[in-house]
Specification:
The chain has eleven helices and no strands. The protein is mostly helical and 276 residues long.
Length: 276
């Protein structure tokens, strides 16, 4: 699965976010665990790739780095939107269960983002054309993030996750004044799909983990919420084909290799016995 697909998923999450918050339901263990474990593994892969020497030399190394740049910046949209929705769901349910885990993933994603931007600013081993392209990706993703957060402004803590709060507030006013929300969402989805597919053109850096991240999100979005949004068939296939056993294998690997605080989060998820 490509980062482009995660951007589209972010739009669907934003469209059903208010309805998900209104259900006042806890997040399910399996989906939350899969999202956490896949995101952690993906972060580790990103950091390894970004630690490669800038003069690694080959065209293959440059393409791989480009793919990581695009994936970090593109998938950040979903990370911010899903974290905002998860925090709002916790608040609505009177709990503090999903938010700490989602915020931990968001913080790690910010570290990867900062590493990418620092890499580009330094310019060592990066062509000017690549810097220009990635900067365009950054600006596009920031604007789409703020637009989607604007759709959630009435129910989610969007200030913390925005890039430009004034822009979010403007988008929120536009959304509130819309007389045909379903038509507006259809137009928004089509516009987003065209813009990201025209700009995020590299190969997927971590297609396997992107698919698991998407499955973790979809597992905590009841099927009935998508009745009017027409979520792509591929995303439903992703949801159905994943299961908690895959996630438990990943988390076992993480707990065996990381002793710097991940255990506390993993143990917290694994100890929870409540089901949605």
């Amino acid at each position: 699965m490509h980062a482009r697909d995660l951007v589209e998923l972010a739009a669907y999450v934003a469209s059903v976010g208010p309805a998900r918050v209104e259900r006042r339901e806890f997040f399910g263990d399996a989906g939350l665990l899969e999202y956490w474990s896949a995101s952690k593994c993906r972060f580790e892969r990103w950091m390894r790739a970004l630690r490669e020497p800038p003069d690694a030399g080959s065209a293959t190394a440059e393409q791989r780095r480009q793919a990581v740049f695009e994936e970090v910046l593109g998938s950040e949209i979903l990370t911010r939107i899903w974290t905002a929705v998860g925090c709002a769901c916790d608040r609505a349910a009177g709990a503090d269960e999903a938010a700490p885990i989602l915020l931990n993933i968001w913080t790690a994603h910010l570290q990867a983002r900062h590493r990418v931007l620092a890499f580009l600013v330094a310019g060592s081993g990066v062509q000017l054309s690549q810097v220009v392209t990635i900067n365009r990706v950054r600006r596009l993703c920031e604007r789409w993030t703020d637009l989607l957060l604007g759709q959630l402004a009435e129910v989610c803590p969007v200030e913390r996750f925005s890039h430009n709060q004034q822009r979010v507030e403007q988008f929120a006013r536009d959304a509130k004044g819309c007389r045909e929300p379903e038509i507006a969402w259809s137009v928004l989805h089509a516009s987003l799909r065209m813009s990201v597919r025209g700009l995020l053109t590299g190969e997927a850096a971590n297609s396997d983990l992107n698919r698991q991240v998407a499955a973790g999100v979809l597992a905590n979005l009841p099927a009935g919420l998508f009745a009017s949004t027409g979520i792509p068939k591929d995303l439903w296939v992703t949801r159905m084909e994943r299961n908690s056993n895959d996630a438990r294998v990943l988390v076992d690997q993480l707990l065996a290799s990381d002793t710097t605080g991940v255990e506390g989060i993993g143990a917290r998820v694994l100890r929870r016995g409540r089901h949605p």
